[in-house]
């Protein structure tokens, strides 16, 4: 199985799939940066990043940034 397939499989769980952008945002959350800095890096607004973060949290069952980052590490997204 290729690295790309492994990462795609890691982002699929309990019937929900993280979008490509959600995986990017989730990986960015692992860095010591603000949502504003993530938005600047991704050329979107802070509100867009907030919406994507909320969607990621809902899909993976996280309620904090630390939980989301731990999930990302455990599933090979970071």
UniProtKB/TrEMBL annotation:
GO-annotated molecular function: DNA binding
- Specify whether DNA-binding is a keyword of the entry: yes
Name used for this protein in its record: LuxR family transcriptional regulator
Q: Name one GO biological process term.
A: regulation of DNA-templated transcription
Pfam families found in the cross-reference section: GerE (PF00196)
HTH luxR-type domain: which residues? 11-76
Q: Which domain of life is it from?
A: Bacteria
Keyword terms of this UniProt record? DNA-binding, Transcription, Transcription regulation
Give the residue range of the signal peptide. none
């Amino acid at each position: 199985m290729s690295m790309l397939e492994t990462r795609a499989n890691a982002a699929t769980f309990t019937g929900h799939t993280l979008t490509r952008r959600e995986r990017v945002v989730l990986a960015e959350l692992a860095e010591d940066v603000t949502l504003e800095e993530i938005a600047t890096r991704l050329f979107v607004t802070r509100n867009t990043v907030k919406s994507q973060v909320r969607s990621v949290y809902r899909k993976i069952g996280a309620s904090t940034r630390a939980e989301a980052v731990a999930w990302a590490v455990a599933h090979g997204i970071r």
